[in-house]
């Protein structure tokens, strides 16, 4: 996976506003109001604010109304997945992708993808987790930032948003760790800054225990 210098060559403007599935809308089935979402984002992720050359970045659920075909993070495999596979996995309920949207440009500035998984005994026995049993986990499968937004801290902000919301999810769904597969040594260092530990000394799989997650991040507002 790509940890997020941000990728996407200029995502074209669609001219359309987010559909009612976006977090700024209210559909009567529990979607929070825009005011509550703004407050939550500011509290959990610091300033949502502006990225240089961009508008306000708003995080919300996957929507087909935003152009994905022009997104590029500098990693072709990841770009291809986002353009052509993210929608299918969303429909199949095998993954959930959250967009960081530039409201002014009406385009995806960043995204992350979560998948439910578990670590088998062979993967964790004798590692830093030290478990003799399978470990339930949430996999942070992908995280990327559009190339035009890289170097402005959006990768950090996207990760913190993801973790803050997972802290809230942990109160309703049981999982023991958050896992990520870093793409390179630079990515390993990036995740370590936010509490992730290497599963093995020489590996690029890292984990953050749910216990540490909940100590660090407050629960999103209802």
What structural category arises from helix and sheet content? Answer: alpha+beta
CATH superfamily: Gcn5-related N-acetyltransferase (GNAT)
- Given the C-alpha coordinates, what overall shape results? globular
Q: For the largest beta sheet, what order do the strands appear in spatially?
A: 1-2-3-4-5-7-6
List the uncertain runs: 3-49
- Report the radius of gyration as a whole number of Å: 17 Å
Name the CATH architecture.
3-Layer(aba) Sandwich
Number of structurally distinct domains:
1
In DSSP terms, counting alpha (H) and pi (I) runs of 4 or more, how many helices? Answer: 7
SSE order, as H and E?
HEHHEEHEHEHEEH
What top-tier CATH class fits best?
Answer: Alpha Beta
* Largest sheet, strands/sense/barrel: 7 strands, mixed
CATH topology: Aminopeptidase
Helix content: 25-40%
Q: Got a strand count?
A: 7
Beta-strand percentage range:
15-25%
Mean pLDDT: 78
Describe this structure in words.
The chain has 222 residues and is an alpha+beta fold. The chain has one domain (34-216): Aminopeptidase, CATH 3.40.630. The chain has helices spanning 34-45, 76-84, 86-91, 121-124, 154-169, 185-192, 210-216; strands at 57-61, 96-102, 107-119, 135-145, 177-181, 197-198, 205-209. It has a seven-stranded mixed sheet. β2 (96-102) and β3 (107-119) form a beta hairpin. The two termini are 31 Å apart.
